[in-house]
Amino acid sequence: MNVFGVDIGGSGIKGAPVDLERGDLAQERYKVLTPHPATPEAVADGVAEVVGQFGWSGPVGITFPGVVTGNTIRTAANVDKAWIGVDGARLLADRLGGMPVTVMNDADAAGVAEMSFGAGRGRKGTVILLTFGTGIGSALFVDGRLVPNTELGHLELHGHDAEKRASTKAKEDEDLTWSHWAHRVQKYLAHVEMLFSPELFIIGGGVSRKADKFLPLIEGIQAEMVPAELQNNAGIVGAAMTAGRR
């Protein structure tokens, strides 16, 4: 069975049909740039363009970079604040001509995929997936069960939101070396580990493709650290999985 997945990020909106049996994209994904300002209407147009590229008709799972409760958007750190209070599923379903739409937090979607088909498959105990990109997303699992909307990228670290210091965007904006950035990520992981004592950190987002450049530089973390296996497709897969279940 295939279900369509869309991943809305601070820099891009990407999507593809997903084979739910394999936990992988059924076709090569299509991506458009996230509009600026990233208002609800503008982002909905981008989602419609991605879905329309495949001539899709059917259930669609969509991630959102913020807290989502009962399909309502509660926070919007890296998109326009006009999203707050919006029924995301209704807005996007209307824009997609009435297709069934499920909306969930982007990192939670990535975590769902990794726990079923990737680096967290079969793992018990406390597992935390962190996605490094425009911000830092988080997904917390206890014995395989998701604790939704943790938003650990907004933990305060040295007087700042952690994602302002340790995201991939911070690395790029400040032109940090891998070593300098890894030191910041190490401080962030140590803070998260102090709070939650996970057995496993899964490091996701686009930067997971280059895990060999920074993971070996991180020291003093007791939890096992591994790169996400689905890499930057995890959000698409997890959103489709969740839509398929609903």
Structure description:
The chain is of the alpha/beta class. Helices cover 30% and strands 26% of the residues. The chain is built from 7 helices and 15 strands. It has helices at 40-52, 88-95, 106-117, 162-166, 168-173, 178-196, 234-245, and strands at 2-8, 12-19, 24-25, 30-33, 60-64, 68-69, 72-73, 101-105, 126-132, 136-142, 145-147, 156-157, 160-161, 200-204, 224-227. The strands form 4 sheets. Strands 1, 2, 3, 4, 5 and 8 form a 6-stranded mixed sheet that branches. Helix 1 packs across helix 2 (88-95) and helix 3 (106-117) crosses helix 7 (234-245). The radius of gyration is 17 Å and the shape is globular.
Strand and helix layout:
Elements: E1 2-8, E2 12-19, E3 24-25, E4 30-33, H1 40-52, E5 60-64, E6 68-69, E7 72-73, H2 88-95, E8 101-105, H3 106-117, E9 126-132, E10 136-142, E11 145-147, E12 156-157, E13 160-161, H4 162-166, H5 168-173, H6 178-196, E14 200-204, E15 224-227, H7 234-245
Parallel strand pairs: 1-5, 5-8, 9-14, 14-15
Antiparallel strand pairs: 1-2, 2-3, 2-4, 6-7, 9-10, 10-11, 12-13
Helix pairs in contact: 1-2, 3-7
How much β-strand is present in the residues?
Answer: 25-35%
Sheet/helix structural class? alpha/beta
Q: How many helices does DSSP assign?
A: 7
Tally of strands: 15
The shape, in one word, is globular
Give the averaged pLDDT, no decimals: 97
The helix content, as a percent range, equals 25-40%
Order of helices and strands: EEEEHEEEHEHEEEEEHHHEEH
Query: How is the main sheet built?
Result: 6 strands, mixed
Distance between the terminal alpha carbons, to the nearest Å?
14 Å
- What Rg do the Cα atoms give? 17 Å
Residue windows where pLDDT falls under 50 for at least 5 positions: none
